[in-house]
User: What shape does this take?
Amino acid sequence: MNYFKRKFIILLYHKIGDYPEKAKFPGLYVSEKNFDKQIKYLKNKGYVFLTLSEMKQLYDNEYYPVLNNLKHESGNYDSAADTSKNEKNKFVSITFDDGSRSIYTKGLKIIKNNNVNATVFMVSDLIGDVNVWDIKNGEIKDEMLKPEELREMIKAGIEIGAHTRTHPHLTMISEKNAYEEISDSKKILEEKLNININFFAYPYGDYNENVKKLAAKAGFEGAVITKTGIVKNNADFFALRRVAIRHNTDFFKFKRKIFKVKYFY
Ligand SMILES: [Zn+2]
Assistant: This one.
């Protein structure tokens, strides 16, 4: 039986916290209160939280017992193995693009307190630095995750994915540069953190057929985009759709977004 025939939701976040007054892109912030409320809502609805690699494992195996083999050592997972709780096949993944330090300073305790996990897409050349690409676009300075913070999050069950070296528009640079940005970000993170990097996020959600091929060639198992949607059977794993959560996504809008992707995508 194919247990993946229902749908899998991937949520897209950037920064946790109230947005500073001078922020040019306030949409990228989600307050701690809202983030916590959103996770609790999904938990109460019976959703099991998976990292993207766990989701892929479930997708490939199309069989529930794979949930029993998920890594639970950290104790940070809900009891995903308790399949009786999830007869409706409700799966969700929290993803963060860029690697803002606020994920560690403000988000991690919420993730831990709720016993869930997440996947963080890190701009590999900017570990411990600031949001250089965003500052060029007129945004205020935001600190990026430091190596020891990334390691602590990995210990807490959080998956790290790659988001290029410098956050370029991949369709606007040469194929050679694009491939280096994609492939090197994987290698740099793998070497620095001593883990496998399996998933990729296209900066600005900017991709085309060729860029997708480059991500596959670099050895990723899949890549996420910013278009709205849900992961269904026969999903294109190099263009996985997500549901973007923003600072103005209040509780009503959040519930409506989840409902809409589940039933209309
Ligand atoms: Zn980004």
Q: What stands out?
A: The two ends are 23 Å apart (CA to CA). Residues 71-86 have pLDDT under 50 and may be disordered.
